[in-house]
Description:
CATH class: Mainly Alpha
Order of helices and strands: HEHEEHEE
Distance between the termini: 38 Å
Oligomer: single chain
Strand order of the largest sheet: 1-3-2
Low-confidence stretches: none
Amino acid sequence: MSKSPSLGILERVTLLVVTRFGAGIFSRQELLNAWINEYPNSPTSSVLPADYCVNTKTGRHTPLEHRFLFTVEEGIFRIYDPSRDGTWEIDEDGARQVL
């Protein structure tokens, strides 16, 4: 994988998830370990998978177009698939699936 410093945090996190985990599930710790291995001189504070999730309250601070993960259970994630996971909305009270 390219370690290009020209990529932004979102692009690097996305690339890392896709190349390391693909369609599989992964834990927060697995993502952090992969990030440290791939980008040892970069801060880990931007690699919080819940921030990129469509179905977590912390994801509300991330623009919708940047939310590409789905929380399977506490601390376990995978790439969001709208046909499988449905549509979600998030506000200060939490995340809800839109029916």
